[in-house]
Specification:
Elements: H1 3-11, H2 18-29, H3 35-48, H4 52-63, E1 79-83, H5 91-101, E2 106-109, H6 120-124, H7 136-146, E3 148-151, H8 159-169, H9 177-190, E4 195-202, H10 211-227, E5 231-238, E6 247-248, H11 250-260, H12 268-283, H13 290-302, H14 305-316, H15 327-330, E7 336-341, E8 346-351, H16 353-365, E9 379-381, E10 389-390, E11 395-401, H17 404-417, E12 418-421, E13 431-434
Parallel strand pairs: 1-4, 2-3, 4-5
Antiparallel strand pairs: 5-13, 6-9, 7-11, 8-10, 8-12, 9-11
Helix pairs in contact: 1-3, 2-4, 2-8, 4-9, 5-12, 5-14, 7-14, 9-10, 12-13, 16-17
Length: about 425
Amino acid sequence: MIPQEIIRRKRDGEELGLADINTFIAALAAGHLSEGQIGAFAMAVWFKGMSRAETVALTLAMANSGDRLKWADIDRPIADKHSTGGVGDNVSLMLAPITAACGLAVPMISGRGLGHTGGTLDKLESIPGYRITPDADLFHKVVKQAGCAIIGQTGTLAPADGRLYAVRDVTATVDSIPLITASILSKKLAAGLQTLVLDVKVGNGAIMADRAQAESLARSLVEVANGAGIKTSALITDMNQPLADSAGNAVEMRNCLDFLAGGKADTRLQTVVLAFAAEMLVKSGIATSPDEAQGMARRALSSGKAAEVFGRMVSTLGGPADLVENPDKYLARAPVEKPVLAGRPGWLSACDARGIGVSVIDLGGGRRHPQDRIDHRVGFSGLLPLGTRVEAGEPIAVVHAADEAAAEKAAAAIAAHYRITEDKPQQSPVISARI
């Protein structure tokens, strides 16, 4: 069947058969579809949805569009974690080396930013020399020697998803549950995982702003993944404010290195990282309880072992050998750094996390078109968490910008994204459910 007929049938609400989905994805992987056809298919799925059978078929077709990795010579449990995306969400950067330091092998296939959400690969590309698309042999070598490797999709690993992912980013089709499910799980299936933990975010800065939608996505992911043979669970986490105190690329890499050095204790970010470490270690059989697992993760941090693993991963993938020790030597800084000042005294009671993510894009730290180049220097640091008491004129964030005009505009935007009230707000739990 020709592609436009498959698009028409889905547009009209018909259920696509296995042969239709395999045909369309094979053409996508082979480069035989235009961006218009890919975008039309994504939009049809966004409007009409997919049945569970269609979603499973789409996931498997995308996973089978390239190579499937095997880890027979690695005597560690093969595990991973994936996030549906948020603002200031750099959990993966710390979680992979922490859990690797505790005995897991973590072949993490990550993605670029989608819409207003930041991408792990974009953050890693702020490291000079870091190879995000190594060949299969190097990927295998890094996982074996360092314990973890965070990379992007190579040309032979779920290639159909790579092209669909880029088009979804710029066609307002990011928040489709079947497309999210297939995109995430096709990469994980291709990576040869045994266990998987999913971070499904909910809130104004998440792809899923509605709790019911987030739970629906979590169940879709867990059911499809378990049905495909990967032991999977999901945690639903809050994204009504940036998770880290930074949003951008190089600024989030600095945040990661500070975390690995013990500098982010007692933060929402640490709560999430340790919870996912515990989930991964228990699910893989390394620990027998969450408390035991969190203790292992804390020791991996305090001993410096997790930072050592991260440094080994970076250097083996082509980055500098002394990044952990000398981050300022390698992570570029924006020419202009401008504080964002509170306009009145009171409590930070709410913020538009999505707006903050969009402001990163406005600074040049994200993409409007698939071919856009990112300025890795720009973004925000020092973002204060909700529930913080501030005085008028006190900094609530710092803008990192390419020039004064961009800094002024971004500072005004960030100030507008926060609400300051007289009463101290109630705080939502950062982790609200397990599925």
